[in-house]
Structure formats: structure tokens, C-alpha cells
Amino acid sequence: MNKVELREQLTALHQELPRNGLVTWTSGNISARDGDAMLIKPSGVTFEDLTPESMVRTDLHARRLEGTLSASSDAATHAYIYRHLPHVGGIVHTHSPYATAWAANAREIPCVLTAMADEFGGPIPCGGFALIGGEEIGAEVVRVLKGHRSPAIILKNHGVFTIGPSPRAALKAAVMCEDVARTVFLAHQLGNVQPLAQEHIDSLYDRYTNVYGQR
Amino acid sequence: MNKVELREQLTALHQELPRNGLVTWTSGNISARDGDAMLIKPSGVTFEDLTPESMVRTDLHARRLEGTLSASSDAATHAYIYRHLPHVGGIVHTHSPYATAWAANAREIPCVLTAMADEFGGPIPCGGFALIGGEEIGAEVVRVLKGHRSPAIILKNHGVFTIGPSPRAALKAAVMCEDVARTVFLAHQLGNVQPLAQEHIDSLYDRYTNVYGQR
Amino acid sequence: MNKVELREQLTALHQELPRNGLVTWTSGNISARDGDAMLIKPSGVTFEDLTPESMVRTDLHARRLEGTLSASSDAATHAYIYRHLPHVGGIVHTHSPYATAWAANAREIPCVLTAMADEFGGPIPCGGFALIGGEEIGAEVVRVLKGHRSPAIILKNHGVFTIGPSPRAALKAAVMCEDVARTVFLAHQLGNVQPLAQEHIDSLYDRYTNVYGQR
Amino acid sequence: MNKVELREQLTALHQELPRNGLVTWTSGNISARDGDAMLIKPSGVTFEDLTPESMVRTDLHARRLEGTLSASSDAATHAYIYRHLPHVGGIVHTHSPYATAWAANAREIPCVLTAMADEFGGPIPCGGFALIGGEEIGAEVVRVLKGHRSPAIILKNHGVFTIGPSPRAALKAAVMCEDVARTVFLAHQLGNVQPLAQEHIDSLYDRYTNVYGQR
User: Fold this and answer.
1) Listing from the earlier edge strand, what are the strands of the sheet with C56-59?
2) How many domains does chain A have?
3) Which of A27, C103, C136, C208 has the most CB atoms around it within 10 Å of its CB?
4) What is this model's ipTM?
């Protein structure tokens, strides 16, 4: 994919955030690793106003390389993750409502659905509270997700970060994270959620990772 | 309906799954019996990318007969159901959120709405846990639904299967299943759900089956 | 409004039912008084397939006068209401989820919102259980709504009927009924709903009825 | 912005109310300060029927200056706010469901999300009950919001008012208010919401106010 195509893809993927109910107004953003740099949403711009040219290119310390707009205020977090997790090619950040409700309880989302075992390989972990502005949030994301099966983390009182080999994979994780956060929330309200056995979780995760989809 | 029309119809019916909020990303699928074989969604393809040609034709042991894509990973379940329930012409599988919340509680959806008595003739039963991969899920669906009034079953910690004489009828059951799962969930939250008398359920089911709609 | 316009309006109003999330699949219907007769949705037809010509004209005992399709299975209820409440020009019936959740608890929706005092003048009453098929449902609607401020009633384990001087007014009541049913449901979940004083309800209802809107 | 543009903008902003799920039928309205006067939605007109010409111009005692339609029945409230809060350039009023659910409990929305600290600088306060018709509601809004960080207030048993330097800023506050009202509601249902430390709230609010977005 060339530079122009990457900008176009990133812009198109951003439209999936409001379409899937993951964001409100200008919150939420997606980035793509681009060689030694990254592309990310500009700060405070509405999703319908995004264009391929408006995407901001920064180095992996979030210093702007190209563009006239300021990068997302989450750029330092994205950059930190790319620096410390070399297999990550795309990152999504949202405050999607059900996942964030679990985060406001500082509570991991328990793995009680086969679809969750497939996609996340277990619970979606909840990281501690970290303030925006420096590298605190990125450090917490990396600390928890490094070596973890789950491509998603919720952060206490904050929201969701998802990672993937590509921005599209990270987007899928963000969409599925909210989906299971909602279903497990609803299940919890009914009062008697049944656990999934660890061996079943392992078996489902293995199968989904190795068999599902087109080869 | 000829072969081309069946593929077109199956593709169009798949669009109803996201439209009715029953699926997320690539999850969920519909199949149609096609003589001694069946047509089913390809695995891991998004709903907007489906075309009539992309539908996979398999025999009733889920072995591909036509097409270049892999069939849905649920194909073995669909095939098992067609083999064991000869009146079934279409099957729908989803992880629709409210129905799946009941399933995560391993709890049947109680019949407390006249619309539910009409369509399901009683509670929507909950089957036991079964792993994907072989015929376990299909066997559980057939064990529970054979001779049952309900065209829908929820499976513990998993999701929904619905059956019907046609794919469209199975789709209707999937849409109505989520609808009543939601309303009964909400009713349950209010804390004092009133039962429907069995004689009223029987009377409503009989009337809906024999009088409703166009003759 | 001539006969053609009435059929067109009734068809257009039906599209508002799915648009406002009040119906699923073919459930729900609207009727309009038409002189000594009424026009009503045909039974079991999806909303997108409705045409002005498909609307069924019946007398006020629900016997078909014009059209080739069968009238809604709720036609006898609508007809009964028109016969007994001469000021009613339009009727809407839905199973909208939040209102029906209250109905499954056989519990009136308490008037705890100024918008509800405006529109309904107090709680939305809940009628007793009645079986479809004869005049039982219509009789229960008339018994409760005759002389009542509320243009909406919920029926135990069933759903909603709303009335109005026109089909559009009845539709507005159906939309607002679901809206307040949802907000009061949510308020109830927070655990400490505050009552509205009867004098405030009376004052709001009086003002809304006599001052609101264009003269 | 000239007079025509202001009318066009106000009309366009009104379309965001149903699009963001904040209003039902004709409820809800937006106004814009226009010199010594204000422009506001006409009373009882549906959002799709609004045109730039239909917006009503009144003085800051809600007396009509231009237009043939009656102004919103909330005009006196808007006018009062403009008179008493000179920095306010736009006002939004809704009965959005989650925020109104908190209002029906006479309960402020606690600040337990970083996004809420950003936008509101603390809890969203709940004002006392006030009847429509005179200046009571406006007086309550001004009493609570004057000098308050939050641009949003919920009013007991009623709904939401938001203010901003422009109508668009007030709209953003209304959208974000419902968003956080929903997430905090969901968090509350899980039963163990974690507080945000006041120092973190202060730090987040300061950063968002001074660093976020484009300079």
C-alpha cells in the first residue's frame, strides 16, 4: 500500500467508528504505522470532516512530520505503543459506552461467550488509571497487553485501546470489544452468568486463530 | 426458484442481519437447503462484501461442492440440522445481544408476551454448551428443537440458531427472537414479570399458526 | 382529504413505525376512520411492501368492504374502538419494547416527567389481559381510556394501543409513549425516582393542551 | 456570520438533535443569540419541517420580532439565560433519555470518566423542579450554571439545558451530556463505580480546555 492509499484507508476506517456506535462527536481515533513514523487523526476534528490529507504524520515520539493540523491528543500513547510493540501495525482508541462502563468499575470483562474466547482468548483486561499528556497511558497499555492474548484493553475510568497487525484488525477488535462488553453487561443484569471452562476458552481461541476465515 | 435466484435471495437475506442489529462484523450466517446440498455464507467475509457468487455450496456433510471460498465455520452444524430435520429449508445463526445474554445465563427465555406465544408457542429453549468443530452443536440443536414448537434455540454461552421451512422464515424467527429477548429482558429488570397462562399460550399459538397473515 | 390521499397518508404513517423503532417485522398497525368505515393495514405484510392500494377498507365490525388482502388480525379491536369512541379518528397498535416491558409487569407507567404530564396528563394506564380474536381487547381499551386523559394504554403481557383525533395524532402518542416508557424505565433502574406533584401534572397538562404549538 | 447564515446554521444544527438520538417528535430546541435578540425553533414543528425562514426571532423577553410562527414554549427560558449570562451565544434544550433518567432521580451525574472531566470539569449538576410558563426554569438554570464549569444542567423531572459561546458549542455539550449520562448509567448498573480523584478531574479539565483541538 502506498502513502496515498494508507491515508485513504485510514480515513475510511475512521468512518466505521461512528457507524458502529463507538464514538461521539470528535472523540476516538485510529492510527497506522507508516515505516518509522505513524499516521493519526487530527485533534478535535469531526469524523465527517476528515480527509486523507488531514491525517497527521508524526514520528514515534508524536512529533509532527507532515501536515498543518495538530495530531490527536492521544498521539503520544499511540507512538509509545508502536515503539514498544513492534508487531503492532494499527491502533484504535474509543470511549465506546459498554466497554467504558466496565472500565469505570475498574473491572475486566469476563470471558463468558464463545465469540469472546474466539476473538480475545479470555477476559478483556482492565489497566490502571493513567493521566493523558505524557507516556503514562501508553506504558500501561504495553505493560498489560505485552504477551497477552487479548488485542483489547480497557483503562480504568477512561476507555478502550485495541491493537492489531493492521489498522483494520485493530478496528475489528474495537468493534468486537464493544459488542461483547454489551452482551456480557446484559448477561450480568440477568444475575446468573455461567462461566466458560478454561479448556473450552483455549480450544476456541486456538481454533479461531488457526482455522477461521479464508486461508 | 432456480439456482441463481436462490443465491440472490440468500445474499439479500444476509443484509437483513446487520440491518436488524443481529450481527457484528463477520459473525452470523444463513443457509438454504438446495436439493441434496446447501448454500451457506463464506467464512470471515463481511456482509457488505457478500455476492451471490460468493455463497458456498456444500453437501450435507459440509464438504464443498462449488465455490472457491471456505464455507462458514458453522457449516457442519447447518448440515447436521438439514440431515436430521427434513422439514427445515433454511437456518440462521447469530450472536444477537439480548438472546445471547439469556444464553450466557443458561436460561430459557420465558413466554410472557402474546407476541412470543404467537411466534414461538412457549419459551425459547436453551440448549447445553457444545464446542464448534464437529457435530456437537448440530446434535444439541436437533435434540432440543425436534418436535418443539419454537423455531429458535439459544445455546449456553454461545448464541442463537433458528430454523424454518425457508431461509426467510428462519430469518423472521431470528429477528423475532432478538425482539422478544430484549422485551423480556427489560420486563425482567422491572422486577415483577407476570406469567402467561398455558391455555392462553396455546390459544394464541394456535390462532397465529392457522389464522394470521394472508391465505 | 379524499380517499386516495387518506390511503397515501396511512401508508406514509406506517413507515414511521419502523423508523421510530416501534415495530419488528410485520407487527404493529395503524388505522384511520373513513366515514362509517375504516382503513387498516393488511395482515402479515412487511412495512416496506405496503402500498396505498394494499390498505384494507372494512366496516366498523371489521368486515372487508374493499381490497383483496385480509385485514390486520387486530381489525376487530380497532373497529370496536371506533364504534365506542366517536371522537377517535385514528388508532395505532405496537409492541414497542419499553412500553411492552411495563405491560409484562402489569404496571402502569408512572408520570414522573414533565413531558409525560404534557402529553399524557398522568400515568399511562395498564389494562388487563385480553385474548385476540373477538372484541375483548377493544372492550378493555375502551373501558380504560373512555374519559381518561391519556391517549395511550398498555395491555398486560401484550403491547400498546394509542388513539387520537387523527392517525397522525395517534402515531405521535405511540412515539411519545415508547419515549417516556424508556426514560422512566431508565430512571427506575437508578433506584430513586422522584414523583411529580399532582398539581404540577395538572398545570403542565393544561398548558400543553391549550398553549403549545401553533394556533 | 450574517442573518441568513445564522438562520441556516441554526436549522442545520437542529437536524443534529434527532440524528444523535436526543429528541423525539417535536421536543427539543436550539437558540442563537442574535445581537440584542435571539433566534429559536418554532413551537410544535417537526425537525424535518424546519426551514431557515421558520426560525422565530424574539427579543430577550421572548416577544416575537420577526416571523409568523409562535416561538418554542421554552423561549422565555432561553431569553432569561441570555439576559443573565452575557457570555452565552447558544442554548440547547432536550429531554434526552439517559440524562433525563438521572433528572427524574433528582441526582447529579457523577464525574467518573476522563471524557466527563474533560468536557464538564466535574459532575453535571441537577437543578430543582421548576414549572414552564414564566422565568422559573431560566432562573434555576442561571442560579446553578453561573460560575460553574459544566455547560450542562439537568433539571429535576424534566430534562437538559446546555449553554455555550455558540449554538454549535451548546450542541456539542448536549451530545456529550447524553453520552456520559449513558455510560455512567451503565457503569452504575454494574454496581461498583470507581470515583475519579478531584486532582485528576482538575488536571484533565485544565488540559482539555487549554490544549485539546486545533489552535
Assistant:
1) C64-66, C56-59, C37-40, C29-34, C90-94, C159-164, C152-155, C126-127
2) 1
3) C103
4) 0.96
| Nearest partner of C128 among C108, C150, C101, judged by Cα | C108
Query: Is B191 part of the contact surface with chain C (CB cutoff 8 Å)?
Result: yes
3-state secondary structure (DSSP) of residue C98: helix
SS3 content of chain B, % helix, strand, coil (to 5): 45, 20, 40
Q: Does B159 touch chain A (CB under 8 A)?
A: yes
Q: Which domain holds residue B147?
A: 3-210
Q: Which residues of C touch D45 (CB under 8 A)?
A: 214
Q: What is the pLDDT of residues C57-112, one digit of tens each?
A: 999 999 999 889 999 999 999 999 999 999 999 999 999 999 999 999 999 999 99
Residue B215 in any domain: the answer is no
Q: Do B95 and A113 touch (CB under 8 A)?
A: yes
Distance CA D27, CA B144 (A): 48
Cell of B200: 392462553
D159 close contact with C: CB closer than 8 A: yes
Domain membership flag for residue A215: no
User: At residue A212, does pLDDT exceed 80?
Assistant: no
For chain A, say whether B157 makes contact (Cβ under 8 Å): yes
Nearest CA in chain C to B183: C97
pLDDT-based confidence at residue C3 (cuts at 50, 70, 90)? confident
A114–B159: do the CB atoms touch at under 8 Å? yes
CA C149 – CA C127 distance, rounded (Å): 15
Decide if B104 and A114 are in contact by the 8 Å CB cutoff: no
Instruction: Provide the pLDDT confidence category of residue A215 given band limits of 50, 70 and 90.
Output: low
Chain B residues lying within 8 Å of C69, measured CB to CB: 214
Cβ D51 vs Cβ D39: under 8 Å: no
Helix residue spans in chain C (DSSP H): 3-19, 75-84, 97-104, 114-120, 136-145, 167-190, 198-210
Q: Which residues of A touch B159 (CB under 8 A)?
A: 114-115
- From B114, B176, B190, residue closest to C158, measured CB to CB: B114
Name the one residue in this structure whose C-alpha cell is 404467537. Answer: B118
**Dihedral sign from CA coordinates of D79, D82, D85, D86:** negative
Query: Could you tell me which chain D residue has the CA closest to the CA of A23?
Result: D179
> Which residue of chain B is at minimal alpha-carbon distance from C43?
B213
C160: chain B residues, CB-CB within 8 Å: none
Answer yes or no: is D143 within a domain.
yes
For D83-104, give one letter per residue: b (16+ CB within 10 A) or e.
bbbeebbbbbbbbbbbbbbbbb
Q: Per residue in B162-179, pLDDT tens?
A: 999 999 999 999 999 999
Q: What is the CATH number of the domain that holds D178?
A: 3.40.225.10
Task: Flag whether pLDDT at D204 surpasses 80.
Answer: yes
For B28-39, what is the mean pLDDT? 97
Q: What is the DSSP string of D19-31?
A: HTT---TT--EEE
**Beta carbons of A44 and D213 less than 8 Å apart:** yes
pTM above 0.90, yes or no: yes
Q: Is residue C64 part of a domain?
A: yes
